[in-house]
Amino acid sequence: MIKKTKKDSKGAVLLIAILVSGVTLAVGFGVYNRTYKELLFASFWKQTQIAFSAADAGLECALYWDTNGGSPICFGSAISGWTPGTAGSFSAPVSSGCVSVIITKVGVSPSIVTTIESRGYNTCDATNLRRVERGLGVQY
């Protein structure tokens, strides 16, 4: 019978330690990768909501002033380049993004069809690679 010594079992402990370390490292990397992707996804949806809110604000502003008339004031400043009741367009910064609105009118009075298209952006920088655009429209 062969008798095992302490010297023979040292390699087994090292092998088990390497295997456990490898599995732990793989699991840790997987958790990190999943967490990173979730953070990117959450950030994208936040930027999408900013762009959508900007589009909604621009649409509501144009709709209000087009139906009520007067000097349009949106987002705390006067809107230039568009007279309510007529076709035109305007762009304006909103609280955390930008909006671009196009108003078209087709037909003759009293059957004029008005279309308002509002495009909201999460940033005013058109060269930003992470710029998100969302659009809304209404026709009446």
Structural commentary:
It is rod-shaped, with a radius of gyration of 30 Å. By secondary structure, the chain is of the alpha+beta class. The chain has one helix at residues 6-68, and strands at residues 73-74, 77-78, 88-94, 97-106, 113-121, 133-139. Helix content is 45%, strand content 26%. It contains 1 helix and 6 strands, in the order H-E-E-E-E-E-E. The strands form 2 sheets. A 4-stranded antiparallel beta sheet has the order 3-4-5-6. The protein has a two-stranded antiparallel sheet with strand order 1-2. It has one domain.
Q: Name the structural class.
A: alpha+beta
Shape designation = rod-shaped
Across the major sheet, the strand order is 3-4-5-6
Number of strands: 6
Specify the helix fraction band: 40-55%
Radius of gyration: 30 Å
Which spans have pLDDT < 50 for at least 5 consecutive residues?
none
In round numbers, the mean pLDDT is 86
Q: Provide the domain count.
A: 1
